[in-house]
Amino acid sequence: MTEPHVSYALLNGAGETCGAYDERREFYAASTIKLAVAAALLFAVEGGTMSLERAVPSSRRFASRIPGAAHIDFELEPDELDPGMPADGTPVSLSWCLERMLTVSSNEATNLIIEALGASSGGSEAPVGVRGLDAVREACARLGVPGVRVTRLICDAAAKRAGFTHAASALDLAQLMLAVTSGEALTQASRDLMVGLLRAQRVPIIAEVLPAGLAWGSKSGWDDEIRHDVAFIGTPGSDEFRVLAICTQGYSGRGAQQVILAVAHSLVEALHRPSARGAAPGTSASP
């Protein structure tokens, strides 16, 4: 079993650090990288090369980025399969894929978006999946989060064995969430869409300890001995707006969730103490 560890980063709306612990430690990022895939799609829509209304055929099988390797087949990965995906070949819009990717963390929808991004790009002989991954990398650079790495499709076992991964630190994830909800790289319309979808999150963690009525949105990610959550707290643009990312490894699924809840509760409670509201940002503390 991996040695247990937790890291976190809490940022205000200006991107300043309000609290952190080992925030630059890199983790396997799991499904939190779907925020970056969403941003890449929205950049393409803003640039006129894609439309959210574009239909793509539903699929549970995808080509590996490793030439000659076995296809990714979600039918063989029941724990990774999205039961809400329609039968293979059924047309689904990229808007539907975007919603499914962010609200229920659909792996198939994620891969469909990445391949669609690759199909819409030109000037390269690389497979569409690889070209789509290049679009995600470029989106991360535009958002100012080059530390977020998305170098393979979801569940590409052959690429994983070859060293391709999804990686980010707690600080990377906090900065990514800040960028897609209140940064200036995406248009206001794109940011509003992201905020709406993240507020419709069906797998929240941090949100469980937030005061009733407080606006929030989030994206979690998990794998064996890995569980993360990144959330925005409050309304983007308000003085109280914050972003919190908590990353864990080495805990059981339930144990990891309890660790995230404990850290989040402590930080959120401190944020809402009257004496803390005027505190200067930039402090660091262990949970």
Automatic annotation (TrEMBL):
Example of a GO MF term: beta-lactamase activity
Keyword field: Hydrolase
SUPFAM superfamilies listed in its UniProt record: beta-lactamase/transpeptidase-like
Top-level taxon of the source organism: Bacteria
Residue ranges annotated for the Beta-lactamase class A catalytic domain, each copy included: 20-248
GO biological process: beta-lactam antibiotic catabolic process; response to antibiotic
InterPro entries: Beta-lactam/transpept-like (IPR012338), Beta-lactam_cat (IPR045155), Beta-lactam_class-A (IPR000871)
Gene3D superfamilies listed in its UniProt record: DD-peptidase/beta-lactamase superfamily
Record's protein name: Serine hydrolase
Species of origin: Microbacterium esteraromaticum
Lineage: Bacteria, Bacillati, Actinomycetota, Actinomycetes, Micrococcales
